[in-house]
Structure formats: C-alpha cells, structure tokens
Write a structure and sequence with these properties.
The chain folds into two domains: about 1-110, Zincin-like, CATH 3.30.2010; about 120-160, no CATH class. The chain is built from seven helices and six strands. It has helices at about 1-5, 10-15, 25-30, 65-85, 90-100, 115-120, 150-155, and strands at about 30-35, 45, 50-55, 120-125, 130-135, 160. The chain has a three-stranded mixed beta sheet, covered by helices on one side. A hairpin with a 5-residue loop joins strand 4 (about 120-125) and strand 5. Helix 4 (about 65-85) crosses helix 5. It starts with a helix and ends with a strand.
C-alpha cells in the first residue's frame, strides 16, 4: 500500500495518521488488489487479511478523484479496525479516521459508472407508474410473483426489459 499511496500522491494524506502507531504501520503493509469482477462495488477492506480491493474501473484515466476517495475510505476502515482492535464498520470511530485522513465520511459512493442503473443486466418496470427496478444479476424470484412497491399488487404489475 505504501508504494501505491506514493504513486497516487496520497502518502501525505495517510501520514496524518502516523501518530496511531502501530496501527498506522500495519495499515501501510496491507496489499491492494484490483477486482475486474466487481460491478457496483467501488472498494472493500479486509482487515484480518490486511487487504484492500478496488474496482478496476476506478483505475481508468480521468477517474482519479473516485479512485482516491475510495482508497482513503478503505484505508480508514483498516486503520480504525486495527487501532480499535475490532470492526468499526461505518460508525463514529471510522468517521473519525476519515476526518483524520481529510475525507468527508460518506458511507455510500455516488459514482455513476458503478451504479446499479449503469450496470443493470435486467430491468423490471412497473406498468402503472413506470418505476424501474435495476438488477445486476437475474433475480431468483419470478416476475409474476412480484409487484411495484408503490403501486401494490393490483396496479403494479412488472414487465421485464433488457437494457441497451
């Protein structure tokens, strides 16, 4: 992780946590892995395995801001979990680490090219209100057994669409 942080110009941001030794040192020893399978997941931290996984699409040219924000988000997870010796998830301790790294503690990403809408393989649309339900994988349930949450079972029948 140390080399990647330096290459991406984030070493100074990470060094803000240097006072949290030995958690800081252990965080820097984590491996960074790129996932080509991830569709909507931007990143994930596996503290016990000392590993951070990033979506391969974040490494494309022009997406540096999303890449850096996701990387620091996952670093904050590892740092908080190691420092507090327990999973901190998106709680106050994790938020504290995000602020320490100079990031706004957002829990969910808003990256358009990693959204369910952009990656949908199947869309179910309500015949009543036209509400769309996007699925990255084919749902296990049958469409005839489902209905729109807003319109109900009488008026909210669904039809399947295949995105372009």
């Amino acid at each position: 992780m140390r080399e990647i942080a330096e290459r991406w110009g984030l070493a100074n941001r990470l060094s803000r946590a240097a006072d949290l030794e030995p958690a800081f040192r252990e965080m820097l020893d984590c491996a960074v892995v790129v996932s080509r399978r991830a569709r909507t997941l931007a990143g994930s931290a596996y503290t016990k395995e000392r590993r951070i996984v990033l979506n391969a699409r974040l490494l494309e040219r022009g997406r540096e801001r999303d890449r850096d924000a996701t990387f620091l988000h996952e670093c904050a997870h590892v740092l908080a979990d190691i420092f507090h010796d327990r999973p901190c998830r998106h709680g106050d301790r994790w938020r504290e680490m995000m602020r320490l790294l100079g990031e706004v503690p957002n829990v969910r990403h808003r990256i358009p090219y990693l959204s369910r809408e952009a990656n949908a393989k199947i869309i179910w649309r309500c015949t009543g209100c036209a509400q769309a339900y996007h699925y990255v994988r084919r749902p296990r349930r049958k469409i005839k057994d489902c209905y729109c949450a807003d319109c109900g079972p009488e008026n909210g029948r669904l039809r399947e669409e295949i995105p372009e």
